[in-house]
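Whiteboard transcription, Tuesday session. T.W. wrote the structure tokens on the left side:
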């Protein structure tokens, strides 16, 4: 009898993580990080540039090409109080690309720092963007959970919202680094293959890749494909409830092209995922295919993967069949790319359908990411983390990496 994931106690996923083990900065050369290799229960270590040696030729590796945006905006009130407005996801328009192209007005769901000092009124800041002077204002709308609807207005139709973030925004490095963002983070907190703007946190497993590692993978005959999942701030949200049933997963926006789907089908619905974001996207695809098998005319909203959906359907459909349902759906609608969203929680009790190996960093204690790893290695996460702690591995976003092959 499988464990019901809803009743997992998050306290079982705790381990001691001293502050000095959290990497505050990346290594000078990103592919020189350590690589823990977990294969069928055996643990060893190597350096990240050796990654291709451990992967079978002819396999398919999937990368998340999202790009971190400079999502933190600072305003100073006339009283001198500093207010931080942290853009989480676009509301009006709610499409990332369209929102970044807006001129004069854009609305976002934002977290507010120093909220108690911003009771009412409009925040404003004078700035120069692309040599053009303008005034940016922020007006607070309704509260949604821990976030607020914020309307941004600016008085220059030559300037887009993307231009404003690029000049005026600050890169949001993870809160647990306990330091200010530095100029160097603009480069080191992006993957070398990042393209599609929209994340407020980097898909950190990808930070270890360099052009030479990617070249070595190609030389080994490993196929590469990309997809996009925009990482939300919820990725850092600690599990506060005793049982994970009480934890609400944040919604993340995904897009997967027809080419990536066809490549996955050609590889028998099997892939090596770079990072937990790629894992969540690939596994969500399976459940989207299952939905389409039952409801071929589902809308994009109806294709959203709900948090507990994978555990409720108990589908035995082969992965390739599920992926074909998505490819057929794109064909029927003359679409090149699937755009939808997911709230999937992957926890012990979950059956992996597409991901057969993963590259991932070392995650925070009592986090949903640690649950995802535990589900992948059949509950065997503790020996992996004990090894990493005992062998001087660096933890979290700027830390070392692991290759997991269950």
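and on the right, the sequence the group agreed on:
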């Amino acid at each position: 009898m499988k464990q019901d994931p809803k009743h997992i106690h998050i306290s079982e996923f705790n381990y001691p993580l001293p502050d000095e083990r959290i990497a505050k900065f990346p290594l000078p050369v990103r592919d020189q990080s350590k690589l823990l290799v977990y294969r069928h229960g055996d643990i060893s270590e190597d350096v990240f540039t050796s990654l291709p040696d451990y992967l079978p030729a002819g396999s398919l590796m999937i990368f998340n090409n999202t790009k971190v945006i400079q999502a933190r905006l600072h305003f100073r009130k006339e009283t001198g109080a500093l207010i931080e407005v942290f853009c989480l996801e676009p509301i009006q328009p709610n499409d990332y690309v369209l929102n970044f192209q807006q001129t004069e007005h854009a609305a976002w769901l934002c977290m507010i720092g120093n909220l108690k000092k911003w009771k009412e009124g409009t925040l404003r800041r004078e700035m120069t963007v692309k040599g053009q002077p303008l005034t940016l204002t922020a007006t607070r709308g309704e509260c949604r959970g821990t976030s607020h609807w914020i309307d941004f207005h600016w008085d220059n139709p030559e300037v887009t919202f993307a231009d404003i973030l690029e000049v005026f925004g600050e890169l949001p490095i993870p809160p647990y680094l306990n330091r200010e963002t530095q100029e160097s983070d603009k480069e080191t907190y992006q993957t070398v293959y990042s393209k599609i703007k929209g994340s407020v946190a980097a898909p950190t497993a990808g930070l270890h890749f360099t052009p030479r590692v990617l070249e070595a993978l190609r030389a080994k005959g490993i196929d590469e494909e990309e997809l996009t999942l925009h990482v939300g701030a919820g990725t850092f949200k600690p599990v506060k409830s005793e049982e994970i049933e009480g934890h609400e997963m944040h919604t993340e926006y995904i897009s997967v092209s027809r080419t990536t789907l066809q490549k996955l089908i050609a590889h028998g619905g099997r892939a090596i995922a770079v990072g937990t974001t790629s894992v969540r996207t690939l596994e969500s695809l399976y459940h989207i295919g299952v939905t389409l098998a039952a409801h071929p005319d589902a809308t994009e909203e109806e294709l959203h993967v709900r948090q507990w959906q994978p555990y409720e359907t108990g589908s035995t459909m082969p992965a390739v069949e599920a992926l074909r349902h998505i490819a057929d759906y794109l064909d029927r609608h003359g679409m090149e790319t699937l755009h939808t969203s997911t709230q999937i929680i992957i926890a012990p009790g979950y059956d992996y359908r597409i991901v057969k190996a993963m590259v991932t960093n070392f995650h925070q204690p009592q986090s949903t990411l640690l649950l995802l790893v535990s589900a992948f290695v059949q509950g065997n996460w503790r020996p992996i983390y004990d090894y990493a702690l005992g062998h001087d591995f660096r933890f979290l976003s700027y830390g070392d990496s692991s290759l997991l092959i269950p």
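Someone added at the bottom: The mean pLDDT is 95.
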